[in-house]
Amino acid sequence: MASTLFDKIWNRHAIKPLTGRNALVAIDRIFLHERTGAVALNSLSEAGRKPIDPARVFCVMDHIVDTRPGRGDATLMPDGQAFITETRSAATKAGINLFDVTDADQGITHVISPELGIVLPGSTLIAPDSHTCTQGAFGALAWGVGSSEAEHAMATGALRVKRPETMRVTFEGTLGEGASAKDMILALIAQYSASGGRGKVIEFNGPAVRALDMEARMTLCNMATEFSAMSAIIAPDEKTFGYLHGRRFAPKGALWDAAIESWHALHSDPDASFDEEITIDAGTVAPMISWGTSADAAIAINGAVPPSADAQMLDYMALESGQKLVGLPIDAAFIGSCTNSRLSDLRRAAKVLDGRKVAQGTKAVCVPGSSAVKRAAEAEGLHEIFAQAGFEWRESGCSMCFFAGGESFAEGSRVVSSTNRSFRNRQGHRVKTHIASPETVAASAIKGAIADHRELA
Amino acid sequence: MMGRPITSLTSRAAPLLYANIDTDQIIPSREMRSTGKTGLAKGMFAGWRYLAGSDYAPDPAFVLNDPQFAGAEILLARENFGCGSSREHAVWALAEFGIRAIIAPSFAPIFENNCSRGGVLCVRLPAEVINQIAASDANVSIDLPDQSVSLPDGSRWTFTIDEEAKAMLIGGLDSIELTMQSADDIRRWHDTDKNERPWIYL
Q: Which residues of B121-132 are buried (b: 16+ CB within 10 A; e: fewer)?
């Protein structure tokens, strides 16, 4: 029988059926961070249990760790330091892999897991983090869970999972000039709504997806959770294998050869059927920007706020129906997060910033996605371009993607951000967030107002 | 953390009739002050429940501060309730506050799964039914074994729920304990898998 890529991974990992659509599913990789990891590790320990295979459990400090230069355990978030010290102590006691604050491999979970070859094609990976779907870009079944499920998987090596439905989203044609993977996912969500994914696993395919490099594929899969999908997945290909080859935890030598042979089967059969199919012409995708407090409240950068716009959203965002966004003054610009903080993201932003200055009075911050991304960017001089333009250049972490009581943008300020969520108060009290690609953020920082980066090129 | 078993409940249903209520509205990140699972009820809906700039002074305009909804165990909401961050603290906060069920047309998948593990029932009903319940000004009864919701005027609707989630909620079961009963199956699976996919094992 013809199978989808999802079916192949699910069937491989289904240890035994449970009631209804549920099965006991083997979990190959567990990734924790300090925000929700300590609670899972402490709870496990309090129940008198240990991780069944600590070598396959990983933990990093990314969520509330400070990103200002010279950082240590101290955080700007009140009581934040305890999350770091308790996670460190619990991770050490449990004997799992830990990437600590000053570790050379520290970075955002969904940036470092691929960088280190932890996520592998055909594997199952869970993390108590909603953006775990990012890692589906490698042909893994990777999804976000609660802390209790992370504890469950550590204790047993498996989870009780309801088999999700499947959806295929095919991007035909070639992506339009100036548009990126961020614009593809925003266009999909804007058209089909923030609940359009309805708990399904979404396979992204089509020539415009195949054409994306691995970093862009991660950006595409990252916001599947903003589409209310369980996860996203992309069939692995030579780009995937090329990216993973030689990475720290990736198989080596004969094991690598055996793995590659097995990974070649990881694609949906030609006549496999999905519960839902969507096709989008990538040529119609323009640079996108959100105008409202939900990811589906997004429009093409040169468009206007729709006439049907929700009144409460308009009030919060201080906008009116029919208003154009280009030219709207901003207070701050942020480049970072698990969506858009990788080397290629920073390169595209730097291309816009090179030889230009951030507008007077605009706060501009760049937070590389990992310590390795930061080193690589510095090796090619990107940090100087950012600094000369007037951007702060930070240590890696989730940083100001979200407000946890510590550092934030000024109350009520308007921010253009390469992140994934424009929820109310997400980046600070009454902060009005517009999410967009790194190049749109860079162009807007230069103009001090929302800008179409194609006009600066 | 096991949830309190749920079979049936009758309560006022507080209307929070907005789409896409995210987990940061349910429990703002700044209210997650420790690595524990308790002490979260005070921070539930903190951004809506308290007067801006006050030290937790109740905002009388917020529905759960309305005396007629005091002690309400049911929330009514719109599409995609619980979207956003995977933080299970959202469910722990709701449960600690006393919310036992949420009725909405759809739920975000991670949140819904966290609810069935944490003793909060997610009931899916169409938006027009939710409007009718909100307009009824009466107690709502939920019967989980029967998978039904009813009003005192005799209106009654059935809902679907995953069998595993239903069993967890009714039994107040610890899902880890349940899986532990399959420890031999899991061990055998891994023994075979180590030969077939040795690159997975580090």
A: bbbebeeebbee
Provide, for chain B, the percentages of residues in helix, strand and coil under a 3-state DSSP scheme, each rounded to the nearest 5.
40, 20, 40
Fold classified for A290-455: Aconitase; domain 3 (3.30.499)
Looking at the fold, whether B86 and B183 belong to one and the same domain comes out as: no
**Cβ–Cβ below 8 Å for B190 and A426:** no
Residues B74 and B134 in one domain: yes
Q: B1 in a domain, yes or no? A: no
Q: Please report the residues numbered 18 through 37 in chain B whose beta carbons come closer than 8 angstroms to any beta carbon of chain A.
A: 18-20, 22, 24-25, 28-30, 32-37
Q: CB contact, 8 Å: B163 with chain A?
A: yes
Q: B residues 86-105 near A, CB within 8 Å? A: 86-88, 91
Taking residues B146-156, report their average pLDDT: 98
Q: Are residues B179 and B140 in the same domain?
A: no
Residues B54 and B135 in one domain: yes
According to DSSP, the residues that pair with A26 across neighbouring strands are A158
Average pLDDT over residues B192-198: 98
A160 interfaces chain B, CB cutoff of 8 Å: yes
Span A339-358, average pLDDT: 98
| Token digits of residue A318 | 């201080």
CATH 3.40.50.620 fits A5-163+237-261, yes or no: no
The answer to whether the CB atoms of A256 and B199 lie below 8 A apart is yes
B177 and B167, same structural domain? no
Tens digits of per-residue pLDDT, A303-325?
A: 999 999 999 999 999 999 999 99
Q: Which fold has domain A166-235+268-284?
A: Aconitase; Domain 2 (3.40.1060)
Cβ of A421 and B175 within 8 Å? Answer: no
Looking at CA atoms only, how far is residue B176 from chain A in angstroms? 5
Judge whether A235 is closer than 8 Å to chain B, CB to CB.
no
Question: What local confidence, expressed as pLDDT, does residue B1 receive?
Answer: 57
More confident call, A78 vs A301: A301
Contacts of B162 in chain A (CB under 8 A): 20-22, 162
Tell me what pLDDT residue A398 has.
Answer: 97
Q: Rounded distance, CA B76 to CA B11, Å?
A: 12
Q: Burial letters for A399-418: b for 16+ Cβ neighbours within 10 Å, e otherwise? A: bbbbbbbbbbbeeebbbbbb
Query: What is the value of ipTM here, to two decimals?
Result: 0.96
Number of Cβ pairs < 8 A linking chain A and chain B: 185
Give the global pTM: 0.97
pLDDT of residue B53: 85
Q: Does any CB of chain A come closer than 8 Å to the CB of residue B189?
A: yes
Q: Is residue A113 predicted with pLDDT exceeding 60? A: yes
CA distance A202 to chain B (A): 13
Task: Look up the domain containing B187 and give its range.
Answer: 173-202
**Same structural domain, B64 and B152:** yes
Over residues A90-105, mean pLDDT: 97
Does the CB of B194 have a partner CB in chain A at under 8 Å?
no
- Tell me, yes or no, if A11 comes closer than 8 A to chain B by beta carbon: no
| Chain A nearest CA to B105, separation (Å) | 10
Asked if A264 is an interface residue toward chain B (Cβ–Cβ < 8 A), one would say no
Whether B84 and B184 share a structural domain: no
pLDDT, tens only, B59-102: 999 999 999 999 999 999 999 999 999 999 999 999 999 999 99
Averaged pLDDT of chain A: 97
User: According to CATH, where is 3.30.499.10 located in chain A?
Assistant: 5-163+237-261, 290-455
Q: How far apart are CA A373 and CA A107, in angstroms?
A: 9
CB contact under 8 A, B175 and A78: no
Q: Which helix (H) or strand (E) holds B115?
A: helix B109-118
